[in-house]
Design a protein that fits this description.
alpha+beta; SAM-dependent_MTases_sf; 8 helices; five-stranded antiparallel beta sheet; binds S-adenosylmethionine
């Protein structure tokens, strides 16, 4: 065995470091036969030790998990079960062990058990806010902060049509949450929408609809827009977009 470092009190599984690599360690009590120990070695050898390995003792199995593609794991392992019922039961136990760790990230089809949430943490939040500015609302906004009720005729309805026209019938500040997924202008084949406009026309229409969204959104309400990184980053002139949101 190599060098092992134990980190106590990890929320989701026991985090350890082995030979300089971090793993979640799952320990499953199990009385293993020689055939089973051999079977576990075969499974373990299917993967890069940096990602995943199994250490089989006489009375327990230790599963070291850094990252794993579970579908691939199941497919590869099924090939060496050889219809053996004891191997099958053992395999189930291992799957159960892996599945007991509920906290993981997903990357290229792999479950990532270690440090998957690291890059998302914001460090020195206050300092960064100071550097880039802090906007809860657009710059120098003059939004009305009195909210209105949603007219009864719009309650519990699915209304189909052009959002720009439909939203015009709504009063100001009457919607709590807007969730929108506008077209990306990639050239997709929609029945009633031409998804290949000039960028100028595309943004002109989009911003007219966003203007309506902002108008009908309650003061303190939330607007969530699912949009393409390409639309808002690469293809378009991004200053155009940022200008809109700041205004
Ligand atoms: C990116 S897709 C969103 C698909 C949607 N999330 C779904 O699961 O069906 C964009 C959709 O917006 C629709 N669309 C385009 N212009 C619109 C407009 N002015 N008002 C309302 N919907 C519009 C398109 O027809 C398309 O269905």
């Amino acid at each position: 065995m190599g060098k092992l470092k134990d980190f106590e009190n990890q929320r989701a599984g026991r985090l350890i470091e082995f030979n300089g690599q971090k793993y979640k360690l799952i320990s499953v009590p199990y009385n293993l036969s020689l055939d089973e120990i051999n079977f576990l070695k075969q499974i373990s050898n299917l993967f890069d030790k940096k990602d995943f390995f199994i250490n089989a003792g006489e009375d327990r199995i230790e599963i070291y998990l850094n990252r794993i593609n579970l579908d691939e794991f199941i497919k590869k392992t099924e090939l060496i079960l050889e219809g053996n019922e004891r191997r099958k039961a053992l395999f189930e136990k291992i799957l159960e062990g892996i599945d007991s760790i509920k906290s993981y990230g997903l990357k290229s089809g792999q479950r990532v058990y270690v440090d998957y949430d690291k890059e998302r943490k914001v460090k020195s939040r206050k300092e960064k806010e100071r550097e880039r500015g802090k906007y809860f609302y657009a710059l120098n906004h003059n939004f009305e902060n009195k909210n209105n009720d949603l007219p009864k005729e719009f309650e519990n309805k699915i209304i189909c049509g052009d959002s720009e026209k439909i939203l015009k019938a709504f009063p100001d500040n009457c919607i709590d949450l807007i969730f929108t997924s506008p077209p990306y202008n990639f050239g997709l084949d929609y029945e009633n929408h031409r998804d290949a406009m000039s960028w100028e026309n595309y943004f002109e229409k989009l911003f007219k609809i966003f203007d309506e969204c902002i108008r009908v959104l309650k003061f303190g309400g939330k607007d969530s827009c699912k949009c393409s990184a390409l639309v808002f980053g690469l293809y378009s002139d991004s200053s155009y977009n940022f200008q809109f949101f700041h205004e």
